[in-house]
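User: Okay, second chain of the day. Same drill as before: sequence in, structure tokens out.
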Amino acid sequence: MFQIAKIHGHHLLPQEAKFAKYWKEVGIDIEKYVLPLPEKLHIRKPNGVHTNLGGNWNKEWDQFFRGQKGPVSKEAILGQLNSMMQARGWR
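Assistant: Same drill. Structure tokens below.
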């Protein structure tokens, strides 16, 4: 018998409140950046993108913004997103 994978919508740009100001400043609608992922790749240990072994997606975004000097452009944000997706083979 086959088991159907549960699919989650992974927000490529985090929904976490502390990031909202960045998306708003550059006019990004995060709902346009959602990737369907199997649950095990999204939140399940050991390698889900929201786990430490999976890279901890929101932590990577936090590190990106902490490393910026001054305002961050839309192009820089989308460049970071592209890099993070490529690192996981999603591009």
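The chain has a mean pLDDT of 85.

User: Thanks, on to the next one.
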